[in-house]
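Hypothesis: this fold can be encoded by more than one sequence.
Test: take the structure tokens below, design a sequence, compare later.
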């Protein structure tokens, strides 16, 4: 059992975080292909260790299992299934001190957290899993606020480059990858979210069977956004890389042009295939 107690310990009250934001604001703004940064050893070591110790295995809790061509991953946004340290940490990621840190770092004022954790929470990906390049939904489905910032805390000890799982950041036309971030332990990745901020880890994970890619995901909003970023309301937009297979392109064309009854049948067949694949992995 963890000896860490965050009920009366406020991690982000430490003035070092605001100074960290000031020191890195220019680096964030100059991120290529869109504003972003990663910060190593972000949490106090004992807090990061406690959150990792609580992180549930694939069979431990009721995960939402995404098994489709564009994403194979586990997600849990139900805080009642989080460990006590993890739950308190999420509350602190939603606190005024952390919002002030984000605003100072990103230059985006009046950020609003999302305690509903739409699309966020605990993320876990097993060997063979992936998340194809995409731009995230741009409006919250309950509050109708504008999504502006993604925050990802990685919890992967002894993670090797050959395991893959890099967070890849691509230009708006998905012609080149501007940066790749390895998801190593206690590394925080932050980036500005627009309809053109394509990201993901599009290649299947190559870690050992007994390892997974673990992260906490949080998203931040504003009431309105710059006119130049307004692009209607959309859900997640997936895009192909230049080297994506012809079969993948044809599958997406099928969504647009095939009769609905054929598309529904094909989707059921595909989902059964992925379900069997995941079950075989354990």
């Amino acid at each position: 059992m963890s000896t860490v107690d965050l009920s009366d310990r406020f991690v982000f009250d430490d003035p070092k975080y605001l100074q960290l934001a000031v020191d890195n604001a220019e680096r964030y703004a100059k991120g290529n292909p869109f504003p972003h940064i990663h910060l190593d050893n972000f949490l106090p070591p004992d807090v990061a260790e406690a959150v990792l110790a609580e992180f549930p295995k694939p069979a431990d809790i009721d995960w939402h299992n995404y098994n489709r061509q564009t994403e194979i991953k586990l997600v849990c946004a139900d805080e009642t299934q989080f460990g006590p340290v993890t739950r308190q940490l999420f509350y602190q990621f939603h606190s005024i001190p952390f919002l002030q840190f984000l605003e100072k770092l990103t230059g985006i004022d009046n950020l609003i957290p999302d305690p509903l954790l739409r699309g966020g929470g605990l993320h876990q990906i097993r060997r063979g899993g992936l998340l194809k390049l995409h731009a995230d939904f741009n409006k919250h489905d309950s509050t109708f606020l504008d999504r502006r910032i993604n925050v990802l805390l990685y919890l992967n000890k002894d993670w090797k480059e050959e395991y893959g799982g890099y967070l890849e950041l691509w230009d708006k036309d998905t012609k080149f990858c501007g940066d790749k971030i390895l998801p190593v332990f206690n590394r925080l990745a932050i980036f500005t979210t627009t309809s053109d901020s394509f990201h993901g880890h599009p290649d299947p994970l190559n870690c050992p069977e007994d390892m997974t890619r673990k992260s906490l995901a949080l998203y931040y909003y504003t009431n309105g956004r710059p006119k130049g970023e307004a692009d209607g309301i959309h859900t997640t937009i997936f895009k192909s890389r230049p080297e994506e297979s012809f079969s993948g392109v044809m599958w997406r064309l099928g969504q647009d042009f095939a009769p609905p009854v054929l598309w529904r049948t094909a989707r059921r067949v595909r989902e059964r295939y992925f379900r069997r694949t995941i079950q075989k992995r354990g």
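The first helix runs from residue 15 to 29. Confidence is low (pLDDT under 50) at residues 273-282.
Hypothesis status: open.
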